[in-house]
Amino acid sequence: MNILIVDDHPLVAVGLADRLRTMGHNVVVSHTIDDASHQLRDLRFELCVLDLDMGGRRGTEILADPGLSDRQPDCVVILSGTGDRDEIVGVLDEGAHAFLPKNIPFEDVVDGLMAAPEAYRGGEPGIWVQEVRAYVPLGVVYPRGSTLSKREREVFRLLRRGYSDKAIAQELRRSVHTIRVQIRSILRKRGTARRRESH
């Protein structure tokens, strides 16, 4: 299997690549988004392992690149240390097929990568649940209504940057009333009473 690892931490990427090569896979490592884009144009990959935080850029930029629309890997796994449920849902919404946490034992990371293509197979994206050592469909881990919608995540991103209701409304071109309704929903879903606590 051709595997692309996109991670700006050399120790993580090289260690993982070495392990996968011993299993007989052809592995290419990219430490930048730009290099990963070049690799995708040059070779067809069955699996892409994508870090979320790439030195100020998001790994998911690759998924949104129109120049790579016909060069996307068959299966894209986000390998990240984030535990934020809305960020996890967000990256799966952006086109990734599976989410695998970085903070599990190394051999479980390897097992999770190998299981991802079969677990997805065109179905609902999955989240690796360490207790069962398997991917569980997104909608089972985070039932509908328990996470922020795409529009609420846009509001939440600006909330965390300290924007006022009016500034958020101007930035997103929505009414202040709509923004306030969305903020109330965000606070309810995140189990907080005040916007400061939701950050």
The tally of structural domains comes to: 2
CATH class of the largest domain: Alpha Beta
Number of helices: 9
Task: Please tell me how large the radius of gyration is.
Answer: 18 Å
Describe the model.
The protein has 199 residues and is of the alpha/beta class. The protein is 44% helix and 18% strand. It contains 9 helices and 9 strands. The protein has a 7-stranded mixed β-sheet, sandwiched between helices. β1 (2-6), α1 and β2 form a beta-alpha-beta unit. The longest helix is centred in the middle third of the chain and has 15 residues, at 106-120. 31% of the residues are buried. The mean pLDDT is 88.
Protein traits:
single chain; 199 residues; alpha/beta; Rossmann fold; Arc Repressor Mutant, subunit A; 2 domains; seven-stranded mixed sheet; two-stranded antiparallel sheet; 9 helices; globular
Describe the structure concisely.
The chain is α/β, with parallel strands linked by helices and 199 residues long.
Give the helix/strand layout.
Elements: E1 2-6, H1 10-22, E2 26-30, H2 33-42, E3 47-50, E4 53-54, E5 57-58, H3 61-64, E6 75-80, H4 85-93, E7 98-101, H5 106-120, E8 126-129, E9 134-137, H6 138-141, H7 150-160, H8 165-172, H9 176-189
Parallel strand pairs: 1-2, 1-3, 3-6, 6-7, 7-8
Antiparallel strand pairs: 4-5, 8-9
